[in-house]
Amino acid sequence: MTPLSRRAFTTAAMASLLAGCGDHDTPRASTSTRRPGGTPSPPPSRASSKSVRALGRSVPVGLRIPAIGVDTPVIRLGLAPDGSVQVPPVTAHDRAGWYRHSPTPGQVGPSVILGHVTVGSYGDGVFRRLDRLRRGDRIVARLENGTAAEFAVDAVRKVAKADFPADEVYGNVDRPELRLITCGGPRTGNGYLDNVIVFATLSATSRTTS
């Protein structure tokens, strides 16, 4: 699979993510088309310059982030009827979700995984502590074919939803990268005002033991 197709990128770029932001039972992605204003943000710094061979297509089935205690199944997400990006369902056993119009983890391009910060009356979401990640922290995606794709965090950014950097999140890149997205910042009546975005680069691959 190649990086995001033009159609998929256009659709995604029009859907600035509002992933798992509120305490409501039916959170949705925002359909705002507003682009970042003012001075462009610099690209995330790279945690490692080591070249790792890209993987073939294999759907992610699990995600582990040791630094923040995340070990979650991964479900597939598509587009809602209004063209916005789906978010994982609000359940007691919260899970992360891979946006299926993005590359799979380890393929060339930006693979996008979303998670809730809160899940209504159920409490904390799977990405509640995402903003605590730091450069160099490990993220391991378990793939359907038995491969583990390990990423190193390059940068963690908190951005206003109105200024969601769609091009940086969904735009084509020439190597395997990962984006983890949730909400953060001040809470309002309808959720949170910001998004937390983790940028990471493939650093190693291996075969899983189970």
From TrEMBL:
Keyword hit for Transferase: no
Gene3D superfamilies: Sortase
Keyword field contains Hydrolase: yes
CDD domains: Sortase_F (cd05829)
Record keywords, A-Z: Hydrolase
Domain of life: Bacteria
PROSITE patterns: PROKAR_LIPOPROTEIN
Region Disordered, residue ranges: 20-51
Pfam families: Sortase
Cited InterPro entries: Sortase (IPR005754), Sortase_dom-sf (IPR023365), Sortase_F (IPR042001)
Molecular-function GO terms, alphabetical: hydrolase activity
The protein's name in its UniProt record: Class F sortase
Annotated organism of origin: Streptomyces sp. R21
Lineage per the UniProt record: Bacteria, Bacillati, Actinomycetota, Actinomycetes, Kitasatosporales
